């Protein structure tokens, strides 16, 4: 294993009286793909800032290999010192001469020209310029804090390809599960101030996390039982032997102190949608709808039907008109041509990506109680506002906190709390996943799956779309929208990636498409031999994967032999990659055989 280029050891940091980091660590070697995960507020961004050298830890060691280049993407970049976005990106090369062509290429891929003045950029444009700034020099270490924020689906797909082509060691914080699963080979979990490392990608994280928490709970139970036994001895067994058992009494005090100092796992968000009476069976009917802004047609001749219980995802690049289509379907906007009919008995609640329903000057409790009192009505029941706040991980001390000082994740949870308190049978979600941690996302997915009403969803989160929707309406460019059954992955299987389709749609209509010249193919002896032997090889790999999965399923393995656990994890990852390669090779050869024989 290559020595680390960046190493954090025993990092401690305290804000006020509460320790944020209490012994956290992080190591990055060349080519590593590390995802850093944890609850909102667990200190992920702070640890990344310490790694980048922008925050000084109270205690601990930070080592960067001499000569190694480190680039850090913050959540709120500052471009004020630069005249144009191109100047800013070129500054990312550092003191050496940079590649102007690469800087321009990155800006164009991210929807910018390089001539923009930073003072006139939107928040999303600033983030995209900052992404180009850190990618341009292809650094040894790349630290990315939520790089997909403000990127549309084509942009996210492009970013995946760009990161996969880099030799940099990458540390990634993201709420995009699909990106984490595809990019990561190591997972670092930041929890209650300490870090734990799993030598596998994010796809294996949740099962491992649950095992760790179960073992913690078992250890806590054993400690409580031991204290109970010692207390029983203290009451009944020491009357004649007090002086000789001072040591045992001290041990009891130590046990009590250990239990007192233990930090239990943070609770989960508890949410349940307050549902109204059933709507009519037909929720929305749009026929030949067209909408233009000036000369630009955003929606062209779109027809669709939304039935009660449908979950419809709206997908497309930034600027394609997703929110416009959502507003047309819900009656917020009137079409220029065509008709939209809204069904009967609809009770709609909307989660807007800009959090427009929030007043920054209002306190958290008054926001939930809608202006007054100390109660909130949820699903027909009256609850104390502080009790309802706790369901969404807000402490009682935050009741009088102004909404304007809440973090992005806290504002996201507050918006969910407001939306789920209102009776509804039509839920309209415009980018609901922004700033939510993975655990809250999971619960939101579960609640939407149980929701008996209808859901209209705009999102760039591919995994969230896959888990929630039953159909996807996709922008095909030039105002055209097409509906596909299933989720995002089903749409891609039928149509191809959004980025490729968007690029094809952007070509001039008169541009001829040149077909590749047909090539004659035949099966070589090597191909025939591979086709005959691959099934047995795949069976052998599958058996190996089964044994490794069985070994890793042992909840005691990690505690008993961490080295064996890590080695088994790496072996499993290698075997799965080998299986994927073998299956792809076999499928290619089988299709060639059928083509030649047919």
Give a summary of the structure in a few sentences.
The protein has helices spanning 44-52, 85-91, 100-109, 123-135, 153-164, 177-183, 205-236, 246-261, 322-329, 364-368, 385-391, 408-421, 438-450, 462-468, 488-495, 498-506, 525-552, 557-560, 562-597; strands spanning 6-15, 18-28, 33-37, 59-64, 70-73, 141-145, 169-173, 186-191, 194-198, 282-293, 296-307, 311-315, 337-342, 348-351, 375-378, 381-384, 426-430, 454-458, 471-477, 480-485. It has 598 residues and is an alpha/beta fold. The strands form 5 sheets. Strands 5-6-7-3-8-9 form a 6-stranded mixed beta sheet, sandwiched between helices. Strands 14-17-18-12-19-20 form a 6-stranded mixed beta sheet, sandwiched between helices.
Walk me through this protein's architecture.
This protein is of the alpha/beta class and 598 residues long. It folds into four domains: 6-207, Rossmann fold (3-Layer(aba) Sandwich), CATH 3.40.50.300; 220-261; 282-506, 3-Layer(aba) Sandwich (Rossmann fold); 525-597, Valyl-tRNA synthetase, C-terminal domain (Helix Hairpins), CATH 1.10.287.380. Helix content is 41%, strand content 21%. It contains 19 helices and 20 strands. It has helices at 44-52, 85-91, 100-109, 123-135, 153-164, 177-183, 205-236, 246-261, 322-329, 364-368, 385-391, 408-421, 438-450, 462-468, 488-495, 498-506, 525-552, 557-560, 562-597; strands spanning 6-15, 18-28, 33-37, 59-64, 70-73, 141-145, 169-173, 186-191, 194-198, 282-293, 296-307, 311-315, 337-342, 348-351, 375-378, 381-384, 426-430, 454-458, 471-477, 480-485. It has a six-stranded mixed beta sheet, with helices on both faces. A hairpin with a 2-residue loop joins β1 (6-15) and β2. α2 crosses α3, α5 (153-164) crosses α16 (498-506) and α7 runs antiparallel to α8. The protein is globular and about 80 Å long. The two termini are 49 Å apart. Mean pLDDT is 81; it is low at 504-520.
